């Protein structure tokens, strides 16, 4: 298993209940964030750790609490997956992890229907170069715009249309075969 896959599997999530923010392995996560006029809040606490690598800390923000993948995917309004990098990683490894996650969680027909957006997403991620320790990667669903990929608050590439594409990305984290089962449980407040 290559280093980045180990890093992804060793990802961490935690969001503090009742606090304005939580600090996890030195990474701060706000309890609530704004998307234009909409406010989203972090899910309940949870954590995932495997091996001795800590690749990133992650949080899931929704307009309402969700304890199942189906509820999170169906939640109306803006959504965000925030990843805070805890190690340096080349974007090609990051892109491979996303591709592998989609293959594990989408039926072949679903992947085929999204092929053009998956290819464009891969190109956008590859263009990021090196993600450095401390970088923040946001995957936002903004209903009026689509999926917006941002690094350190700066949008990268054009938005990706279609909520089905955002759902495909979200399934990497909370789908039937997620990157890490403990991370999924944490993102869904099941811990």
UniProtKB/TrEMBL annotation:
Recorded GO MF terms: intramolecular lyase activity
Domain Chalcone isomerase: 24-189
Record flagged with keyword Plastid: no
Signal peptide location: 1-21
Superkingdom of this protein's organism: Bacteria
UniProt entry keywords in alphabetical sequence: Signal
Gene3D superfamilies documented for this protein: 3.50.70.10
Protein's name in the database: Chalcone isomerase domain-containing protein
């Amino acid at each position: 298993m290559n280093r980045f896959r180990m890093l992804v599997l060793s990802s961490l999530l935690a969001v503090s209940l009742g606090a304005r923010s939580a600090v996890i392995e030195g990474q701060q996560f706000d309890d609530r964030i704004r998307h234009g006029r909409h406010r989203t809040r972090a899910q309940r606490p949870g954590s995932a750790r495997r091996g001795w690598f800590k690749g990133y800390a992650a949080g899931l923000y929704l307009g309402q609490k969700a304890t199942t993948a189906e509820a999170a995917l169906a939640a109306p309004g803006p959504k965000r997956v925030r990843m805070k990098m805890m190690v340096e990683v080349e974007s090609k490894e990051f892109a491979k992890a996303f591709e592998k996650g989609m293959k594990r969680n989408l039926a072949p027909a679903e992947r085929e229907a999204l092929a053009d957006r998956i290819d464009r997403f891969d190109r956008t991620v590859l263009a990021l170069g090196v993600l450095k320790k401390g970088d923040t990667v946001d995957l936002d669903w903004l209903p009026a715009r689509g999926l917006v990929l941002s690094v350190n608050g700066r949008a990268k590439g054009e938005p990706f249309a279609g909520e089905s594409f955002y759902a495909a990305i979200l399934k990497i984290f909370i789908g039937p075969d997620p990157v890490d089962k403990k991370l999924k449980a944490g993102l869904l407040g099941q811990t």
